[in-house]
Amino acid sequence: MTFSRLALVLGILLAPVSALSQTPRVADIVTTQIRPGWKAANGAHIAALHMRLSPDWMTYWRHPGESGLVPKLDWSASGNVAGARVLWPEPRLYIKAGYASIGYSGDVVLPIEITPARQGEPVSLDATFSFGVCSDICIPVDLSLQLELNGAGSHDGLIAAALDRRPGPARAAGLQAVDCTITPEEKGLRLTAALRMPPSGTREFLLVELPGHSSRVLPSERAGDVLTGHGLIRTDGATAIDRSKVRLSIITDRGTFQHQGCAISD
Q: Fewer CB in 10 Å around end: N or C, the chain?
């Protein structure tokens, strides 16, 4: 299969008006391919979006970090699809204009798990993947993903390699303890997580999230063996947070690691 060209650019973000006439074409920044993949043992189908980004350009992980565009997959127009989700491989940490961004550059394979509504029947994926490509400016893009799936498919080494590169457990990176504190903010709550663990390389970023709530993250700090991160959580007036649902991601130049909750279980 050959790489197809992206067709639709919705607009330009973060670019001064005088620079709009010099904005590069998306087709010159990124090319894409749908990899059809195979049917897994649980009945779901594992496909992938394969991107190739031009030098000096990046795209974002499921959370962009301190700045960037949140990617979204809308599969609502699909046939016989109960759900579709990106199985994100581990990202890299980029520092741009003093802000920590989380994402990918170069050759990127994003596995997509597609769950049929009715097993044994063909699946028609008709989805839109909204994402951003960024360099000195950021360009939001809507990409149409269309794929007909029927049968077992075939194993794809590139998809399998991307699945193997998903974030690992933070305990494997030396996580020993987690301490979460919650303080009120004007428009919600500040959720602070302090992780006792050794440094992982020269650059680290701790992403603090509460799935199901919009949030903004702040810079991370390290003091000795403690890495601290902050998330500003919008709670719509609610003040209680289920600490077991807090998701912590440590993005470093030695890999990405994750931990669920504000405690360490034995």
A: C
Supply the DSSP string of 120-164, one letter for each residue: TS-EEEEEEEEEEEESSSEEEEEEEEEEEE-S-B---HHHHHHHH
d(Cα 180, Cα 229) in Å, to the nearest integer? 10
Please state, in angstroms and rounded to a whole number, the distance separating the CA atoms of residues 174 and 35.
36
Domains in the chain with CATH codes: 4-164 (2.60.40.1250), 168-260 (2.60.40)
Give first-to-last CA distance, the chain, whole Å. 48
pLDDT tens track for 9-52: 333 333 443 444 467 888 899 999 999 999 999 999 999 999 99
Using CA atoms, how far apart are residues 29 and 24, in angstroms rounded to an integer? 8
CA–CA separation, 153 and 175 (whole Å): 39
Instruction: List the one residue out of 147, 131, 7 whose CA is nearest residue 77.
Output: 147
What is residue 57's three-state secondary structure? Answer: coil
Q: Give the position of tokens 């075939």.
A: 154
Q: Return the ∠ at Cα 32 (arms to 34 and 45), rounded to 5°.
A: 20
Hey, which of 1-15, 50-64, 208-222 has the most confident mean pLDDT? Answer: 50-64
Size of the chain, expressed as the number of residues it contains: 266
Q: Cα 10 to the chain's mean position, in Å?
A: 20
- pLDDT tens for residues 168-182? 999 999 999 999 999
**Which residues, listed in sequence order, are joined to residue 94 by a DSSP beta bridge?**
101
CB atoms within 10 A of CB 189: 21
Burial of 141 (0-12, 13-18, 19+ CB in 10 A): buried
